[in-house]
């Protein structure tokens, strides 16, 4: 059975793995440089109580009318398994498009990725940071920061486009000049996220579950994360998520994280004076937050080499949302089926 390596255990990578299991007889392996699944659909846990969680990346899923029919089966599957539930909590300042529907994840946003990884039956390895890709005798030899290189028949790259361009080895010369120019044209926004975790019994008294902030130089979005997901419990405390604006994120991208964290906390105090002191805080830098400019014409994937197959996918090839990742995963699988 041919061995496939998918690099990146985010939404596109995990969905590719699940679709490949359904459609092709392949042995699927996933590598991710992080310590857990999710990518930008990351759910963090309080060090004091792992049941107290916070979504530091994507906040909720929006199904727009343009994708409702095409992707209905994906939403239905996640709703049936209880991975998704309709968003019913009040979100202040949310712009609702006519006919669109919003969903939250009771177990945290990373539960979508974990669902697809379980469905895929793939072997998943974390803290596997890919550095070089070589072509060796009709197979791909993939090197990581630590440990021995491994060989695969097919490689799928679902990491952010700038990270694809940073890879070394034969891949540098395999990428055609025209493809390189297209890849270099992709751009991303940057932002910081803060997760504040509280002890059980803490009460955060606000009339909303989340709100968009328009008049602050630093903060763009605040969520009482458990309230957003309609989860109240006496066994674990609430959590608060803060997202900065993109201009703030870009301006402070290379700053010391502790300094950035303090600026965000000071601004949060201005917006929510008297907010209780958290038991712990997690600061997350999203260097590649959302795609602001995708590959021209949004093809969903880019085939760098046909035999053996080397294919790229992810929201950089479509658009930055759940439906964009579905489109990309479908395109990657179709490309592999054609190449095989």
Automatic annotation (TrEMBL):
Protein name (Swiss-Prot/TrEMBL): Renalase, FAD dependent amine oxidase
One Pfam family matching this protein: NAD_binding_8
UniProt keyword Transcription regulation present: no
Swiss-Prot/TrEMBL keywords: FAD, Flavoprotein, Signal
Top-rank lineage group of the source organism: Eukaryota
Signal peptide feature range: 1-17
Gene Ontology molecular function: oxidoreductase activity, acting on NAD(P)H
SUPFAM superfamilies, A to Z: FAD/NAD(P)-binding domain (SSF51905)
Classification via PANTHER family: RENALASE
Coiled coil location: none
Record-annotated Amine oxidase domain positions: 98-335
CC annotations in GO: extracellular region
């Amino acid at each position: 059975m041919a061995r496939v390596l998918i690099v990146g255990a985010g939404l596109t990578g995990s969905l590719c793995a699940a679709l490949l299991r359904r459609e092709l007889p392949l042995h699927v392996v996933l590598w991710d440089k992080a310590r857990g699944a999710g990518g930008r659909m990351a759910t963090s846990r309080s060090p004091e109580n792992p049941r107290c969680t916070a979504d530091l990346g994507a906040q909720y899923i929006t199904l727009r009318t343009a994708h409702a029919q095409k992707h209905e089966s994906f939403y239905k599957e996640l709703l049936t398994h209880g991975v998704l539930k309709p968003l019913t909590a009040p979100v202040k300042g949310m712009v609702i498009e006519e006919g669109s529907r919003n969903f939250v994840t009771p177990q945290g946003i990373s539960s979508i990725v974990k669902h697809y990884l379980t469905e895929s039956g793939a072997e998943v390895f974390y803290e596997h940071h890919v550095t070089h890709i070589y072509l060796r005798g009709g197979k791909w030899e993939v090197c990581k920061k630590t440990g021995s290189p491994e060989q695969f028949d097919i490689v799928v790259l679902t990491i952010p486009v700038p990270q694809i361009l940073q890879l070394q080895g034969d891949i540098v010369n395999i990428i055609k000049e025209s493809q390189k120019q297209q890849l270099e044209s992709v751009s991303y926004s940057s932002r910081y996220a803060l997760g504040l975790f509280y002890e059980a019994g803490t009460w955060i008294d606000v009339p909303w579950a989340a709100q968009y902030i328009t008049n602050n130089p630093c903060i763009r979005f605040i969520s009482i994360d458990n309230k957003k997901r309609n989860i109240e419990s006496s066994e674990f405390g609430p959590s608060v998520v803060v997202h900065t604006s993109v201009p703030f994120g870009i301006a402070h991208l290379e700053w010391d994280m502790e300094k950035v964290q303090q600026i965000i906390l000071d601004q949060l105090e201005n917006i929510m004076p008297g907010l209780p002191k958290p038991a712990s805080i997690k600061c997350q830098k999203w260097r590649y937050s959302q795609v602001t400019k995708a590959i021209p014409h949004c093809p969903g994937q880019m085939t760098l080499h046909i035999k053996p197959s080397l294919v790229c996918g992810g929201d950089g090839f479509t658009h930055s949302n759940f439906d964009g990742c579905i489109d990309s995963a479908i395109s990657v699988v179709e490309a592999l089926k054609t190449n095989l």
